[in-house]
Specification:
Distance between the termini: 43 Å
Largest sheet: 4 strands, antiparallel
Shape: globular
Strand content: 15-25%
Strand order of the largest sheet: 1-2-3-4
Structural class: alpha+beta
Number of helices: 6
Number of strands: 7
Length: 232
């Protein structure tokens, strides 16, 4: 049976990427604590409290990164997240997909492709570490889908309402990504225009426009995209 051949499977953060988490925490704690300890107006007890809370929070992030996982067996898929564990039996899964990561451009090291499983109500659960930073996404999604198709049961049927909810969610995310992309472009355009106007005798553009322009652009593009998606 195909499902028995590809299962069980487990996905965790790659050791090399976990080293990066350790380095980020090692650099982040001193960098965040230095301004606090250099401020003479903050009492010593408050400095220690803030520092300990910061260390505890970052330590929790490291532990969460280590403990998060996705596992698949003959019963279904289980996702161990940062704050909760979730599991879906194969017959309760509506779909398994790899999708572009909407936040891929927000920070260095973000995966370009992430994965989700969807329940019959259309709600999605991210498959932790089934992304292109840790695995060959297409191969792993193909294996999970093969197991799902073999174990979901002969009476399984797709739900039209789930597809509609998934499509609406994708449309909302697409609107945000488009708006953020235009906002970033507007920052560059406003900066170039401001610098160019500095060399003219009469510049009506103040530096505040560099901050105002992306905010206005984001909301205009986001509203326009939402209205366009709603009219389809």
């Amino acid at each position: 049976m195909e499902a028995e051949r590809v299962l069980p499977r487990e996905y965790r953060i790659r050791p090399g990427r976990l080293t990066g988490v350790y380095l980020a925490v090692g650099i982040g704690v001193p960098a965040a604590a230095l301004p606090i300890w250099s401020d003479e107006d903050i009492p010593g007890r408050v400095k220690w409290l803030i520092t300990l809370l910061l260390i505890a929070f970052l330590g929790w992030l490291v532990l969460a990164a280590r403990n998060c996982a996705t596992s698949a067996d003959l019963k279904g898929i289980r996702v161990r997240g940062m704050v909760r564990n979730r599991r879906l039996a194969w017959e309760d899964i509506h779909d398994i997909r790899a999708v572009p990561n909407p936040s891929a451009g927000m920070g260095q090291g973000q995966p370009r492709t992430i994965s989700f499983m969807y329940g019959h109500d259309g709600r999605r659960i991210q498959l932790m570490y089934v992304d292109d930073n840790n695995v060959a996404v297409e191969r792993e999604i193909a294996a999970l889908r093969a197991a799902w198709e073999g174990l979901r049961g002969a009476d399984w049927a797709p739900g039209a309402e789930a597809d509609r909810r998934i499509a609406r969610k994708a449309g909302r995310e697409g609107s945000v990504v488009t708006a953020m992309s235009w906002a970033l472009v507007s920052v560059l355009a406003a900066t170039v225009l401001f610098v160019a106007l500095l060399f003219t005798e009469d510049s009506a553009m103040s530096p505040e426009w560099i901050l105002i322009t992306p905010v206005v652009t984001f909301f205009v593009v986001w509203i326009g995209s939402r209205l366009r998606n709603g009219s389809r």
